[in-house]
Each structure stands twice: as structure tokens, then as C-alpha cells.
Amino acid sequence: MRKVKLDQNCQICDDKAIGRNFNAITCESCKAFFRRYALKNKKIICASNGNCKITADTRKLCQKCRLDKCFSVGMKKEFIRTVEENENRRKLIEDNRIKRKQNSDQRSDSFDSSISPSTLSFTSDLTIEYDSINEIIDSSVGLSDEELEQQIMDIEDLDQNRSVNHKLLDYNIVNKMMANKITPIYTSIVDYQGFNELEANRLSELTNALNILNYPILLSNNVIKLKSVEQMFKYSKNKFEEFIIDMIRFTKKLNGFQNTCPDDQWALVKYGGMDFFGIRNTRFFDKETGNFVLTLDEENTIIFDIDLFQLKQFLDYPKLFKQVLNKLLIESSHDQFVMDLLTAIILFNPNRPKLEHRVNIRYEQQLYIYLLQRYLYQKFKSDFETKSKLQNLMIMLNDIQMISEIQRTLALSEFRHYLQDYGPLAKEIYGLSS
């Protein structure tokens, strides 16, 4: 288990804690003591009839009272692995790492990349400083491997009840979607009194940066009801190019993004752009009518129904699209702060093709997942409800990625000719650059 710096004390002896071990917050000494004695059947006797006070100074004087205290604070001997179990687990982790690498290589081969990162004039000093991120994450309590494994299994069980029936989808689409699947690593929250200064700074940075993309939702003097896909592409092409430019401006305001190398910056924008739009476009979706309402400028607003996106290869696509958007709005409770954090989570997806520093990207994503978890707890004041809501939101992000993959494969094969007049950035996002 990764040791973390904590401003907390061991629940057994009150010494400086290193993290969560066997389901309790412990120091290194009590962790080792529990591993050594919890599985022994030898009867231990206390000379003081079980009334010893266990502290950092007295913890070695009475094994019985120390072990009793370990169990009383919730430590579980079932979490202790044997040498053989440890070896099997290391082998399983290595096998999964190899599989992920193979999947990543396959995804990389399937994408086009003709525009260099310099096209967007990204700047980076190539120095990744994670001190403040470390402080935020280290201020929480790390989960044991056993608890983390159980939570991931719970998430995978939840995935079986997704809002979308994958059996209806093309096999290649499902494969790509699952390869990009977002799985949160839960962190035990100890401080429920609000965000600390570092967390607040991160959240403020995100919300301020996203002001660029908070377009007004207004009905201009000239409201145009679109009646065909051709009209939709014609009227929205300039707005879509503007959206991509604003997305890039948004990323430049995030220190975590700027501390990423230029090649990775470009990969996150190019391969994550459509997922990003899927999240932000919920602002323009009217779930009562099933229409998108998009203000082009001060004089013109367009309204179009998702039903315009009829696909010959997938007739239920408009219905599926509406279903995903509606459920995302319900799960987020129309909370713009939740949507902003989901935007950052989907931006920093470490499973994008052609990333050079996936660990760094994953670190950023897990930070925003942690901040979302913190925010949800402030709303619900319940661990169970917070975890359930977070799981559902992650499932919805995966469904947004599925919609994007359908657009990237099936929709583009039917609507490609409409996109020829789009700008260079839009073509790059859609994989149409020559």
C-alpha cells in the first residue's frame, strides 16, 4: 500500500498514522502488529484484566489489549493476505497492465493524427510539479488494496445495470467505449467541514476557466427551426469551430493541463473533444421538447431536434441520445458545479490514444474525482448516498463516451459530406483531416 502523509493519528495507539490498513487508520507499528498477531490462535492474557491503556509508549506492554483495540476500531483479519495470495495478485496486476497496453496500442493505430501539437500553440515548461496535488490527495486517507478491489468490483457490478443496452451496439464501438471506461478510485473522506484552501483553489481555477464556455442561452430576434441534418451542419459549422477554440482556451487556464507535455495536451483535445462537447452541450438541451437551443450570435438562434440524427445503421440512435442526456441531467440534478467537475474528469482521461504520460493524466483525473466526491458529500451528508451518486455519474460519463464513439464511427460515415466545409480544428476532432 502507498504510504501517505497524514495529519491524523493511529486509532489504536495515537501515534502518527501512515494510512488506512486492514480497515482502520493506523501507524506502521500497529499495522505490522496486527498482521503478525491477528491470525494466531494462541491465547493471550492481560495482567490487568483487559484494562490497559494503549498509547505509543505503552503499546508493546500488553499484546492482548492492543489486539483487542485493533478489533474494536474495525480492523479485519480477513484483509490479511498470504504470501501466495500476494504473489497471485502481483501476477494479476501485471497481466492486466499488459492487456491495457495492448488495448492502448490498438486504439492508437485506429486514429488519425495529421496536425502537430504546435498547431494549437500549446506552451509548457515540461516541468510537472505535483506538490499541491500531493498535499490535497495526501490529506485524505488511502484505502487498503482489499477495500479498493471490492469497490472496483462494486462499480463493475453496477455497470451491468447501465442505462444503455450494449447488445444493441456495434461490437467495435463497445470495445472502444470499454477501453476508455472511467473507473473512480474512492478515497475515504475524514474532514467533512468543507474544502481546504488547496481544494478551494483547484475548484475556483476550474469554474473560472469554464466561464469561457458558459455561453448565454437566449432566444435571439431571429429563431430558426431547423428541419434537416443539412441545415444543422450548415448553421452550426462556425459555432463548432468557435467551441473548439474556446475549449483550448479553457485548457490553458488549468495548471494541471499546462504542466502536461504538448503531445499529451494535443491528444487529450483531439481524442477527447467529442466527449467534452457531449458534456458541455447538455446546457443547450431541453429535455421537455428533445430540442437543442443554440444561440449563434446576438441576432440568430437555431433550434433542432435530435431526431434529425437518424442513422441508417442504427435507427434507435436519436432515442438513445435523448435517453443518455436526460439521465445525465437527472443524475447531476442540473447542478452546474457537478457538470463542471465532470468536464474536468472527462478531459483528463488517461485512456486516450497516444498519451506519453498516462500516470500523470490519471493523477489529474483522480484528483477531480476526489473533489467531486467531496462536493457530493457536502450536499448529501451521507457516505452511502455520496458513493452511489458518484458511481452513477461515472457510468453516465461512460455512456457519453459511447455516444461519441457512435458519432465517430456510424454517424460520420453517413454525414461525412456535410463536414467538408468545417474548419480545420473540427475536421481534426472528427478525424477528417487529410
Question: How is this structure best described in words?
Answer:
The protein has helices spanning 28-37, 63-72, 83-109, 131-138, 145-159, 171-179, 197-210, 229-251, 255-258, 262-280, 317-331, 336-347, 358-380, 383-415, 424-430; strands at residues 19-21, 24-26, 222-225, 285-286, 291-295, 300-305. The chain is mainly alpha-helical and 434 residues long. It folds into 3 domains: 19-79, 2-Layer Sandwich (Erythroid Transcription Factor GATA-1, Chain A), CATH 3.30.50.10; 81-108; 111-430, Orthogonal Bundle (Retinoid X Receptor). Strand 1 (19-21) and strand 2 (24-26) form a beta hairpin. Helix 7 (197-210) packs across helix 12.
Question: Which helices and strands occur, and which strands form pairs?
Answer:
Layout: E1 19-21, E2 24-26, H1 28-37, H2 63-72, H3 83-109, H4 131-138, H5 145-159, H6 171-179, H7 197-210, E3 222-225, H8 229-251, H9 255-258, H10 262-280, E4 285-286, E5 291-295, E6 300-305, H11 317-331, H12 336-347, H13 358-380, H14 383-415, H15 424-430
Parallel strand pairs: 3-6
Antiparallel strand pairs: 1-2, 4-5, 5-6
Helix pairs in contact: 6-14, 7-12, 10-12, 10-14, 11-14, 12-13, 13-14
